[in-house]
Amino acid sequence: MPITPLPRLMIEDAVRATLAEDLGLAGDLTSLAVIPADHVSTVTAQTRAAGVIAGLDLAALAFELVDPSCTFTRNVADGDTVAPSERIFTVTGPSRSLLTAERTALNFLCHLSGIASATADMVAAVKGTKAAIADTRKTTPGLRTLEKYAVRVGGGVNHRFALSDAILIKDNHIAIVGGVAKAIDLARRNGGHMVKIEVEVDTLDQLREAMQAGADVVMLDNMNPVQLREAVGIVGGRAVTEASGGVNRETVAAIAQSGVDLISVGWLTHSAPILDIGLDYVSAV
């Protein structure tokens, strides 16, 4: 599936803020002190591990915002699977500018590529089942849009972007209100006809209550594959089933084989390791 890039309007503030954070109050003291103002060079980014690339637009924008005269040439595209030592992009421009933009460009590219790579690995692990791999709202503050984009690049799907997207009744909502059915009834009456209702259940008895109350989606929290298979049978196609909790590379295949529709994985955005990519000087121009 082609990757739809994020509009510049959605990424520019993040890149500008990150550059400003890095430049501080005095700019790039090292490059200003040791690199001649008129020196122009070419640098190239290469992978140091295999993975899936995401975030090239942010990397390119980092160089452009520091110095519009930089020329950014892509050798791959977001969504491409790359091998170690593969060239990702080349940039030519004033050497001071290249060095100033380097860390911001790589921070975005390595982080988002790490998320895309981890997602692709989980998607591969459930191949042959109907389960889709989904993210959560456990994202880095300020980077949710970018991290959820990287999940899509890796072949996953997005859960809620924000609290306003849908109603998700969780354990604390149920505890405060006094029951699954009561919470769903209140959500149905007050949430609006356009809003889906999902409810998190910990037991099969709660699941039966949720189904009787008419939940659109049920989150099956921390259930083992045997319980999940029974839960899918209880739902019988009347609602979307989502497995959550305890999901990793070793457990995800068995979870998917239970027949659930979605498997949500919080660590994809909050703990996925980066894809190691380095930027190296090639030559003076």
Task: Give an account of the 3D structure.
By secondary structure, the chain is of the alpha/beta class. The chain has two domains: 129 residues, Quinolinate phosphoribosyl transferase, N-terminal domain (Aldehyde Oxidoreductase, domain 3), CATH 3.90.1170; 147 residues, TIM Barrel (Alpha-Beta Barrel). The protein contains eleven helices and twelve strands. The strands form three sheets. Strands 6-11-10-9-8-7 form a six-stranded parallel beta sheet. It has a four-stranded antiparallel beta sheet with strand order 3-5-1-12, covered by helices on one side. It is elongated. The mean pLDDT is 97. Its EC number is 2.4.2.19. Involved in the catabolism of quinolinic acid (QA). Keywords: Glycosyltransferase, Pyridine nucleotide biosynthesis, Transferase. Belongs to the NadC/ModD family. It is an enzyme of class 2 (transferase).
Mean pLDDT metric: 97
What is the strand tally? 12
Work out the helicity level.
40-55%
* CATH architecture tag of the largest domain: Alpha-Beta Barrel
GO cellular component, one term: cytoplasm
Catalytic activity: nicotinate beta-D-ribonucleotide + CO2 + diphosphate = quinolinate + 5-phospho-alpha-D-ribose 1-diphosphate + 2 H(+)
Domain Quinolinate phosphoribosyl transferase C-terminal: 115-280
Family: Belongs to the NadC/ModD family.
